[in-house]
Each structure stands twice: as C-alpha cells, then as structure tokens.
Amino acid sequence: MAVTGLRIGVVGGSIAGCAMAIAGARAGADVTVHERSDGALQDRGFGIVIPPPLHQELVVGGYLGADMPTAPVATRVWLARAPGRRSARELARQQAPVAACNWGLLWRALRANAQDGTYHRGRPVGSVGRTASGGALIRTADGEREYDVVVGADGHRSVTRDALAPGVRPVPAGYLVWRGTIPAAALRDHPGQLAMLESSWVTLGFPGGHGVFYLIPGAAGGSRLLAYAIYASPPAADVPASTAYVRHIAEEHFPAEWADIVARGEHTSQVLHPVADFVVPRAAEPPFLLAGDAASVTRPHTASGAVKALQDALCLERSLRASSSAAEALRRYADERSAEGARLVGLGRRLGRALVENTPDWPAMGPAEVEALSRAALDGDGSYLYGSVQR
C-alpha cells in the first residue's frame, strides 16, 4: 500500500525543487518548498535539451503542459574549420533527437504545476537536522519546521548534502565552459547556418575544445535564441578568464561564418564557469533525499543537469507510490538514483577527455572517425546525445 500524508520539505525552488514538489504532491504528500531567492527565476534563459520520450512522459504525467514551447530537432551535425581556410567542413551527421527548451520557460511550467504545495520565497535554509523521532528539521531565520522527509534540491552547494554526505566536494575538470544566448536574428546574414539549426544541433570541434549550438524558444513568447556552450582550457595567465574571452576563441578557431555569429552577435546572456563533478555515495538516507545537482553534478557534456533532476522527480513519485513507508520509499529512490548519478559522472569524464582534454584532429575526421570517437567515449554506455552516424 502506498504511503500517503507525508510532510515533505523541499530545500530549493528551482527546476529540481519544483519537479520534486510535483512528485510529492502527486503521490499524496503535503509539500512545502523553501527557496532562498525572493524573486522569480524565469529570467535564467539558458538552453536545455531533453530527450523527446522524457518530455512526453512529463507532459502525460502532469509535470509539464503540452503548450510549453520547445524547439525539437532530430539530427546532430559535427563541424570543424577546413584546413588552411576559414570555411566550415562537415564531418558527420548523427541521429540524435532532442527537445530543446529555455531554462526559464521550463522552470515557469514546473512552478505552475507545483501549486498544490506551499512555496516560500526569500527563505534561505541555514541547515537541516534530525529529530529525536526520526523526522527531519529545516532551519531558517523564521525558526524550525519539522517534516517526515527533507528533499535537498539546493544545488551543488547543498546544505542538505552536508547533513547526508558532508565530505563530498566538487572535483575540478581543469577546463571551462562559456554559455550564452544570442537572438536568432543575428543569423539573418547567415542563412545557411540558420537552415542547419532549424533541423539540427551542431557540434563544432576546434583544437583544445568544442562548441555546441542549438535554437531555443525565447522567453515569454519572444523571438527564438541561439544557445551555445563552448568548452576550452583557461587562457594564459596574463589573459583574464572572462565571458568576453569566448569571442577570442571564436575568432581564433571557428569557421568565419560561425565566428561572426558568436564574436559579433549581441548576447542576451553570458556566463562562464569552471567544469567540475561529484557524486554522493547514496542519494538518500532517511529522512533526507538529494535531487538534481545536490546529489551529483556531471560534466555538461552529458546534458543531464535538468534531465537528471526531472528523472529524479519521476523516480520519487514511483517510489512513494510503491512503498508502505517513507524509509522504504527513500531506499528505493537511493538504489536507483545513486547508481545513475555515478554512471553519468563517469560518462561525463570520458566525454571530457575525448572532446576537450585530448581533442582529435577534427578537420581530418569523417563519419567513421566520429562514430569511433563516440563509441570509445561511451565505452559501452548509452546517451541520447549519441545516435547512429549517417553514412
């Protein structure tokens, strides 16, 4: 018999927190979300890609509305700069369907469907703890609240993780990722690139790194955006590691048409951060459960940040429905999600070595070499980002 009537406190009200709130409410729990920010989060408009089957499952399950805008494409195109020239050379195409979306629109859709619970803004959680009866406490400036289960959905600096796995810290990869969005109108003078992005997402290889490009819906019904993530080593010690440095990377390594888009396109958002990863030994130990980046951070090559958080939520709902107690539900959750977090961290490290740390001679590659690179990096694992190479 499914356990119902639980009091679940969620630390963090971002994508992971809202998804976990929906999961708890759908399984019959009384859910309260504690979000540290006192403002709305929808302006964080970077790009996310979701496997189409997961997107459909979330729509059918009531997590997302069918009207949430996405930009689905079915193909991945691999490019590099042609040797001795500034033009692009196509290396290969893979069947790799994704549903690209805007972070802010995804959060807004989840937030709208988390209305059954209580959502507190501007309530930073200072710490969590255990009660004498086996429950959990959330401590804020307003005092303490007691719950049967506390879900840590509070990101890589999680205070909940400090209670469950205090020794776990991020492990630096040694390289950086530049993320940005540019109005799709910046491609109006590049019709060939726009046409490619209408049906594909693009991986552009260069010495010491690569970039990923795809279209996403604009916020609040606005014009579409070109989203990118560019991975490379930090610049030399005498050059600042800044968001502006991505323009230098583009000018130095990209085909002329792609360099023009990135280096001179007017950005709507830009951020730079080091790449790192970690995973906790167990994603739950009663009365605490970790979700999203609080449980594990994978290198972004796996495109599994938001995806894993959404899968965490689906797992929590299944576990609650299949269990007769909170402790049993958390054990079920931990058995499934701990293993998945470790798998994704391992996959991200292999992809990082193949695509950044030990980049191949990109211009010399063709379909066979791209397929071999993908298979070697996957090492028998699976990823929705890597499909069959089209000959």
UniProtKB/TrEMBL annotation:
Oxidoreductase in keyword set: yes
Residue intervals of the FAD-binding domain: 148-345
Name the UniProt record assigns to this protein: 2-polyprenyl-6-methoxyphenol hydroxylase
Transmembrane region(s): none
PANTHER family in the cross-refs: MONOOXYGENASE, PUTATIVE (AFU_ORTHOLOGUE AFUA_6G14510)-RELATED
A Pfam family: FAD_binding_3
Molecular functions per Gene Ontology: FAD binding; monooxygenase activity
Organism: Streptomyces atratus
Keywords of the record: Monooxygenase, Oxidoreductase
Record-linked SUPFAM superfamilies: FAD-linked reductases, C-terminal domain, FAD/NAD(P)-binding domain
InterPro entries recorded: FAD-bd (IPR002938), FAD-dep_Monooxygenase_BioMet (IPR050493), FAD/NAD-bd_sf (IPR036188)
